[in-house]
Specification:
- This protein is α/β, with parallel strands linked by helices and 434 residues long.
- The protein has 11 helices and 16 strands.
- The strands form 3 sheets. The protein has a 7-stranded mixed beta sheet.
- A hairpin with a 2-residue loop joins strand 2 and strand 3.
- The longest helix has 20 residues.
- It starts with a strand and ends in a 6-residue tail after the last helix.
Length: 434
């Protein structure tokens, strides 16, 4: 188990950030750490697989590649799955499930392909032991992933169990909450290192703020949950307990203040409860209030990081009706990026308005320029023309995908005054190379 081929799938646009995170956590580099479309390949140990599950904030799962073969039909898939030594990974007393994704596969039915792989796994156990394991499609002990391209089939066993965005602390949410892995990607893309204040003025149930607070406190992303590898045969409890103890010993007081506010006071209550479960209630400050009226939460300029609502009307100053958050448009990606899946939902590109009929984003930009000089604002949005509507010139734009929705993470460097003054300041200042 000291020479495994791991694949860590991630959202589109996050691959380089994930490779950097894996390098930081494991020290892997060169041919042992390769970036691919939709994820990162790592030649690593079983201990590394557990370590990455515990600490990784950007990956969707940690998969162990067990087979890579060419195929032309379902019979080839059966033969490939039959050749894998499943008996060294789990027993006939455990249940399993086949998950299958495809990219340009010639097969007409992925369900039938998954059935053939399932039959191969069960038949191998029957041949080896005389007993076959049961299938459980709801809560399996073991998840097996198959990914098909035009002519190759890759088989993986999952070490994560529930997807890694399920950190174990978010029980209170509004409508279409931002996933923790995307919030972590926003933080990583912004370059925020936990040394300066961070503020989300549209915090919802607190996902961005809580992720940032855990970073500031050195809390491992998976410290509040269980993992699939705990049910696999290679699992060594003493190694896992040592990794957990090391992670707990690394936790510390917050290195920077973190703040969040939301127009819906109900969402602020949710955020506070989530922060308590995440172990960062002492490290975050939540307030209710309209983003168009909220003043800076601290004297020192810092970073604003937000995924604002869009495509719906925005309630003003704490009058939030049911408290649900409009138009977040966050969807769960497939097991592997680029795979054939259900028909994606389309993001709304409509303009968000306040209840008084005004355009929310130009008003927000004016509020920032007047009251947040020296701050850097990072905004995730599917509206690629948003900087023009806000009358702000972005200094960076980072492509990120929110499920099937193509977005940009725009960086705005706040300069007090008019758009003309901002343009003059841009010409006077050296270009941003970050």
């Amino acid at each position: 188990m000291n020479q495994l081929q791991l694949f860590l799938p991630c959202a589109a646009g996050v691959e380089e950030l994930l490779a950097h995170e894996v390098h930081r956590l494991t020290g892997l580099k060169g041919q042992d750490l390769l970036t691919h479309r939709g994820g990162v390949m790592a030649r690593a140990s079983w201990r590394d697989a557990m370590l990455l599950n515990l600490h990784c904030r950007l990956a969707q799962r940690v998969l162990v590649q067990l087979s890579l073969s060419t195929y032309r039909n379902e019979r080839d898939l059966y033969e490939a799955a039959s050749a894998v030594a499943w008996e060294i990974w789990f027993t006939t007393k455990q249940t399993f499930k086949i998950e299958i994704t495809a990219q340009h596969s010639p097969l007409t039915s992925l369900n039938f392909a998954a059935l053939k792989i399932k039959d191969a796994v069960a038949d191998r156990f029957r041949q080896k032991t005389g007993v076959r394991p049961d299938v459980n499609t709801q809560w399996p002990d073991v998840r097996i992933y198959a990914h098909l391209t035009t002519d190759t089939a890759t088989l993986y066993i999952d070490t994560s169990g529930e997807p890694l965005f399920k950190r174990g602390w978010r029980e209170d949410t509004g409508e279409a909450p931002l996933k923790e892995t995307l919030a972590a990607a926003m933080i990583a893309a912004s370059g925020w290192d936990g040394r300066t204040p961070l503020y989300d003025p549209c915090c919802g149930s607190g996902t961005i703020v809580i992720e940032a607070a855990q970073v500031a406190c050195g809390i491992a992303a998976g410290s509040r949950r269980r993992f699939g590898f705990e049910k696999l045969l290679p699992y060594q409890p003493h190694v896992w307990q040592a990794l957990q103890s090391q992670a707990q010993a690394a936790e510390h007081a917050p290195t920077a203040p973190v703040f969040g506010s939301d127009v819906a006071h109900r969402m602020v209550d949710f955020a506070e409860r989530n922060a308590e479960r995440a172990g960062v209630a002492h490290a975050v400050q939540f307030r209710g209030g309209d983003a168009l009226q909220r003043m800076p939460p601290c004297e020192e300029p810092g970073v604003m990081l937000l995924n604002p609502p869009y495509g719906e009307r925005i309630a003003v100053a704490g009058v939030a009706g049911t408290g649900g958050r409009p138009g977040r448009g966050d969807f769960q990606p497939g097991a592997l990026a680029g795979a054939r899946a259900a028909q994606p939902m389309q993001a709304s590109r409509e303009t968000a308005h306040t209840d008084d009929g005004g355009d929310f984003f130009p008003q927000l930009a004016s509020h920032w320029k007047k009251n947040y000089p020296g701050w850097t604002a990072w905004m995730l949005t599917p509206d690629l023309k948003l900087p023009g509507r806000m009358r702000l010139k972005e200094s960076r734009r980072v492509p990120l995908w929110n499920g099937p929705i193509e977005c940009r993470l725009f960086r705005f460097d706040m300069v007090k005054g008019s758009a003309r003054e901002r343009t003059q300041a841009d010409h006077a200042a050296p270009p941003d190379r970050s």
